[in-house]
Amino acid sequence: MNDDRTVIGQLSDGRGSQLSHEQASQHIKTMPGGKASSAPIIGNDEEPTIFELSSPGRTSWQLRSTQVPQWSMEELVPVGHRRAFPVSLAEVSERDLVAHYTRLTHRQFSVDLGAYPLGSCTMKYNPKICDAIAGMPGLAEVHPGAPPELVQGWLEVLVQLEESLCEITGMQAATLQPAAGAAGELTGLLLMRAYHEDRADQRRRVIIPDSAHGTNPASVTLGGYEVTTVASDSRGCVDIEGLREALDTDVAGIMLTNPNTLGLFEEEISQIASLVHDVGGLLYYDGANLNAILGVVRPGDMGFDIVHMNLHKTFATPHGSGGPGAGPVAVSERLVDFLPGPRPVRLTEGKSNWSGGGFNDEFAGEFGWMLPTKSIGRVHSWHGNALVLARALGYVMVNGADGLRRVAQRAVLNANWIRKRLEGIYDVPYDRVCMHEVVIAATTLKKTYGVSALDIAKCLLDAGFHSPTVYFPLIVEEALMIEPSETESLQTLQALADALENIALGAKGGVNMKNCPMNTPVRRIDEARAARKLIATFDDR
Amino acid sequence: MPDYTPHTQEEVQSMLEFLGMDSIEDLFEAVPTALKMTQELDIPTGLPEPDVYAYFEDIAMRNRLVSERLVCFAGAGAYDHEIPPVVKALAGRSEFLTSYTPYQPEVAQGVLQAIFEFQTMVTRLFGLPVANASLYDGASALVEGINLAVAASGRNDVWISSGIHPNWRAVVKTCATGSGHRIVEIGLEDGITCWPDGICGTQSPGVIVVGYPNYLGCLEDLSKARSLADAHRALLVVATDPISLGLLRSPGDWGADVVVGEGQSFGTPLGFGGPYLGMFACTKEHVRRLPGRLVGETLDEDGKKAYVMTLRTREQDIRREKATSNVCTNQTLMAITAAIQLGWLGTSGLGEVALRCARGTRYLRERLLSLDGTESLTGDTPIFREFGLITPLPARLVIQRMADQGYLAGVALSDLVGNKGDGSLDLSNSHHGLLVAVTERRTKDEMDGYVEAFDKAIRS
Known about the structure:
By secondary structure, chain A is α/β, with parallel strands linked by helices. Chain A is 33% helix and 9% strand.
């Protein structure tokens, strides 16, 4: 390991004295973990909606003095277009606005608060330096329609990121436009379609393993293809014989996640690639689990033609309560001409060839826009989720080649530590060395004690952890998919494992798990009622 | 060496021992040796944060700022509105920033309630009763709106007004190569859609799409689009600029079945085009076809009010290839930001912002049209907060020259291109088309300075 800290050699006890290895091990075992249940919550009253905090006539807005002539609405808007009544919004003071949203945040778990071992989601720590980068006025206040000579800095950021992502994935070129993983999937499928159509090759089917994320089949449909599902074998990988049977010249391609959603590496990936390529199909890499292999192995080297990345997972851009993300798509040589455009590029001849009507403006600059010759077209209003892209570049730069590899190593180390620690306590359906995540199951607990994966998830909330992903992948009953990520410490893993062990012991001891959670702002929620009697706005009440 | 992993070397060793492994490489035994990288990635070694920060500071200097050195008159779907410190402070809270999709509602009531409130605000703005928790941007919201309307009407011929932002139309066309929708673009005259009387070479449309205001800032009579939709038993999808709805009749009130919009104007910075906010609302009838997430109110087991994602069987993780959409990750942070901004504006603030945009637009437009050589791109059609000019010189050149004088003059229509280089612009002289937007942040002095600089730019 090329790690500076190896030279430090010994663990400190925090008071400057050095500990022996035995003492150090002991010390490690007894350090407190990172449970979020220590966070103080004052009371557990409901928070009223902002509409209930409103008093007509109360304001908090303040706008610039502009000295513009004070024409009235009647003078500005033709009568037929005028709103009859103002839009009814909450009217609150700035102080109440702050209090309302601050109280809401106190009813919200987050990565910054505690461990979030949500499988498939890579809820790692989001470095604050990247927030600072995204907040720089020189990046945040730039208009996307400004001509290239005014946005050379931004173009450089985009080109740098594209080059880094291509190196990391082993691909030729990338589009940064897709706003999220699913948008990247659809983009990839449209690239697949354009590629085949360009060769006058009509194909109708895309193959997906039964362990795939739900976005895969949904994207296939939007791409105009039919889904063919192939089963997983007893080892949790693509069943090669099943794949062989499914493959013919009607297959446009296959979508794979590797490591797959069981956290297992598809060992036969090279054979899978040959089989698919032999019938003229393309390989699509779902990058949801890229974190596991950074600097270790690259999708391009495995034979993939199209790769999407989730920058909000692997590259630590914050998930923002469910978005924004960014889902760049990198491709192999033969797909470069089909990429969405315009693409940010290094200019070789000092000219941009992006201009729909042929107006090529001369300007001095190193970077410009380019529309690939057979481009599938735009997939975003502008250039993608640019501020997310800038954060990702920051993350790549701070980590560097050495750091990214360490990220993968420690993500895999953490997941395996959890797997080993929970062996014998939970079912581990595919019990071998896993990658960045491990799928355990409550099958036995359910069968013997009636305690389900959902019960365990809810009990874990009480213990101060976010729950793992539950009931996914679909091929494992009572699945609990744990992805600790590389940024959780051994002490936190210990506390998490202890909590899971205690829950299992409690289940065996007959503790009523259906009561959990008890310590959260609300308790188990009547989801059926929400769907039956839909109240999706305040006005529906 | 920069590092966000907490492991000490001793801990790594003890963990490997626990696993019965000698080396960290043993963790990757499943990866075939032939595939493994034999050397490090060809990207630089990690840099300490201050060095990276300095790099980005340098990069940022190479952009011309909108706020400090370039006064922004560019719009075209991305606007320089006031974002007060209170909105930045609240929207930047790490509980919103660093949490995931609220799949565990017991520990996600903060986000769920914020989305519920956002949905309420969108329905009130758009004038339709159901709104989702957000989509990626205006263009993606439009694509989803069209998909919903095609599914509901059962017909995939889509008539789309050329008043829809060219970039959005481009995205619609890209996605249509997969969905198979047949997209027919309907031209404009003086900024108003020329809807055909009969059928234009295709089947009867299942979907009619129109902008209100459209991307050239024009207000068209939506009752025409509504009648056309009725005549064809088609759904009417309206793409709106939500700020304008502070003063304008809502598209829902005009009879739209689906309303989509770009919500960047509500508290999200220009950010070179993203992340922005796709807003989406529809009638109750179509709620089960709604794309993306929807938050509903219910009770917990103690009878306490609680919020949860609902009607989940529409979504990709459950319905898979039969889902209404593939969207998973959306733009929740921007939705929460918009809700906070709308909370700050309130009823009177939203109206005031819209009014000030319209006032500034009128002032600048009248002054520019009084100059020799400039013409309105859209005749006398009423406009709201943005307008098209025909410039005597190519618009790109005007923008370049005005940048030297401290103004971002607008967006050149020639920069808003469709797919595959087809241009798909409505104007033969599109290189002379300049789109100018005025927000509530623009002062009279700035506009007077703009006119002076513009005059100089077109005469030099």
